[in-house]
Amino acid sequence: MGPAIDKGFSDILDRDDIEVADDPSALAPERALVIEIIGSPERFVNAASKVGLEWLAEEVATLRGVRSYFDPATGVSDDDDEQDEEGGLDADVELLANEDVTSDEVSGALYLGMPTKATFELLRSLWNKFKADEPAPDKHGDWWKLFGLLHQLRPWGPEDRIGEATRRRLREEQSRTPGDDLRLEVDLWYRGDGATRLRAVTEFRANVELLGGTVLDEERIDEIRYHSALIHLPGDAVDEIIARTGTLALDDDIMSIRPQNGFRFAIDELIATEAEDDEESSADPVRASIAALLDGWPVENHALLRNRLDVIELEVADSMAPVNRRFHGTAMASLILRGDLSEANPPIDRRLKVVPVLMPDGSFETPPKDKLALGVIHRAVKELKEGTGGLEASGPDVVVINHSICDEAFGFAGTMSAWARLLDHLAWKYKVLFVISAGNIRDTFEVPGYKTGAAMRAATAEHRRAELLRAVEASKSQRTIFAPAESVNALTVAAAHADGSTLSLPANLSDPFGDVAAPILASGLGHGFNRSVKPDVMLPGGRQVAHPTEGAMLRVHGREHPDRFGQSVASPDPHGGHLDFTRRSAGTSNAAALATRMAMLIGDVLDDSPINTEQPWYTRPTAPCVLKALIAHGASWGDLGQEMTGVHIPSGHVVRRKEAVSRAIGYGAVDSDRVVGGGGHRVTLLAEDSIRKEQRHEWRIPLPTELRSSVEFRRIVVTLAWLTPVFPNSSQYRAVALDLVGTSGKTQLWEGVQRVSNQPAVGFARRGTLIHAVYEGNRKAIPFGDDGDFVINVQSVSKMPHMSRVDVPYAMAVTIEVADSINADIAASIRSRVMPQTRTRN
Question: How many Cβ atoms sit within 10 Å of the Cβ of residue 46?
């Protein structure tokens, strides 16, 4: 990490010795030291710089993204970008430098990996002297200043191993079934050394047995540094864990203990109707099976699904899923293949691969109770893409995988979950796109604007919508996206309050948003890892009712209406053997399923396009990037974004207002017509390639001469998507960052073309693997190069070693629009000038 610190500090910490991490799983347990920061990370960074610990300040700033929108992976800051709206980017940087980041946005803990036991103890002894109000040793006075900004400095212990969220969740589980045994997931410290690992596991299993428990499952996935066990414990042993006492709570080989992954899908009310048999469903699909569904068992012979499903039976057998309880998998398959049935869409001309990973359990559908969910998912994807037991892969052409399940036990809190790390690894390894739901938040939230449910119902639609949007934003710390929605390689989908039903609610119920497709009340809120844009996009998820709970403060939650609101989906017959039932459904799972459907429809267009001539497009490593870019390419904030920007913190800074909007809708609602549609005055061009570290690819878009002298209004939409390898034990988790740059290498793309204000702030947009930006010409002519071409560059940067020979697949979609008053067929003119090779390497 560089030379040792001078000023007398090298006897405490050396830059070559200490590791700084946001994620404790990256450290060895015997060297994990926890520092809890008082106040914002910015204050700690400033103090560390002033006492001569510039390297520590830099590490913390890199981990937390504080002080500016500087991206450590790219080395690009927003100071280099075009001026943003309302004060420009300098104002954005000043805001983050001077404003505390609230506790729900950034964790207050950092983790130091100490080089030796002696160094570990030395730093602890200094801290203990400080806490005892003893004077600082000679040449260590500035350390006392830094210690003043810390709440605690301690080794990893029971309070880290068993967090408050875990204790609260376990108490809730015990209250449901007092005295009953419970299942827990235990994350062991990952050990690369086999002998150390064997010793730790042997002792752990012995401790579980001494408590009267059982180890039900154990899984180790080396690529993501994951080693966990699923255990079954008696009630008294669970009491000890809640109290942070006893053998397991004090076991230094355990990193964390938490409830079993908590995805639980339930049907509270059900009104089923019969559907007409569709002759199109029995026709043989002819296109390749490019999509898979990881979910519950579907009703394979349902009138709307028959001859459209290939079910791969692995760990959840057909006998484990009674047909009359197959709700979630049937609904997801229905939405993917048919969309909202109220809209009478034709079925997709492809078979859908389905790997059941959920099973009915009483009134719920959950992952198998005796298996770790990550192991089930890992084996399912491996079977699809590699095959198992000497058998060929069941889904060799699969390039998009619908993953509408999540861990509802905990929301994303800044550290990448093992589930997200797994999907990121699998996406890179197999070159597939995971489509993930943001998660449904069923808890109530306070609505200060109304005293009673009647007052909420009596309000105008506009007033009620504004109050509910403000209330959801105010409760954002309890309504975060669920793991694995923070996955950097995946497409994460929020749900819009929209469906094909034409029915209205009775007067005693509240429609939260009316005819405005705002995010449903249950949709999980971002950001993602390193405060990147998450969710990525929003699609219809069915409408929900604003259900009130009255008390000292009115509380509300989103609830499905089984008769009036929601998307129409295929359903099992809960009481018999009918195969033609439908029901209404709403949630982020639905929105993710529609995104997967859109990917399949885009696939139809790609099948029939020139991109498919040399080899099937879905067999190329760029395929998931193409789908991700094209789905997001139709996204925009539109009128909803403007309304939400005005509603959220109206007196606050523009960046904070836009941040609130992007938490809810990402890059915005997707208009599918803008992706697969077109016209004479709009053309979409697609680029795809692989790029290496520090390379820049130049793409030339041949604009027609008709635009050279025109000053008519026009718009440019650019979307860049890529896959990145990930390093789970590094602060540089996302190994490769791409960016859009102009010919000068700056992020100012073109003179006279400005990024519009109604979209996420630039700094957040650069932190994931999806950049989507809208530019307007402001009545100035689009700039041409010397040869009349319109130029855009893709830049690759990585700070990780050993990446120079790694090919990173990416795709870029560019749409150019001109005013209808221009008397030219822009699409035809551009296509006539496109050359086979349009990109040059640097």
Answer: 16
For residues 173-200, give the mean pLDDT: 85
Which pair of tokens denotes residue 293? 């569904």
Cβ-in-10-Å burial (0-12, 13-18, 19+) of 316 comes to buried
pLDDT digits (tens, 9 = 90+) for 12-25: 555 555 677 767 77
* DSSP per-residue codes, 769-838: SEEEEEEE-TTSPPP--TTSEEEEEEEEE--STT-TT--EEEEEEEEEEE-TTS-S-HHHHHHHH--S--
Distance CA 634, CA 815 (A): 10
Maximal CA-CA distance, the chain: 87
Question: SS3 helix, strand, coil % of the chain, rounded to 5?
Answer: 30, 25, 45
Query: CA dihedral in degrees (85, 91, 96, 102; nearest 10)?
Result: -60
Please compute the mean of the pLDDT values over residues 222-233 and round it to a whole number: 95
Interval 560-615: pLDDT, tens:
888 889 999 999 998 878 899 999 999 999 999 999 999 999 999 999 887 777 88
> Residue type at 289?
S
Q: Which residues pair with 715 in a beta bridge?
A: 776, 817
* Mean confidence (pLDDT) of the chain: 83
In degrees and rounded to multiples of 5, residue 188 shows phi and psi of -85, 150
Q: How confident is the model at residue 241 (pLDDT cuts 50, 70, 90)?
A: very high
Alpha helices in 116-192 (DSSP H): 117-131, 141-147, 158-161, 164-176
352 and 310 in contact (C-beta within 8 Å)? yes
Whether 768 has a pLDDT exceeding 80, the answer reads: yes
pTM across the whole model: 0.88
How does DSSP classify residue 617?
A: G
SS (H, E, C) 536-598: CEEEECCCCEEEEECCCCCEEEEECCCCCCCEEEEECCCCCCCCCEEEEECCHHHHHHHHHHH
In 692-769, beta strands by DSSP E:
696-702, 714-722, 737-741, 754-755
Helix/strand/coil for 245: coil
Distance CA 257, CA 160 (A): 9
Q: CA 514, CA 632: separation in Å to the nearest integer?
A: 25
CB contact at 8 A, 150 and 37: yes
Paired with 669 in beta bridges are 538, 636
What pLDDT sits at residue 581?
93
Token pair of 813 as six digits: 């979609």
Q: What is the pLDDT of residue 401?
A: 98
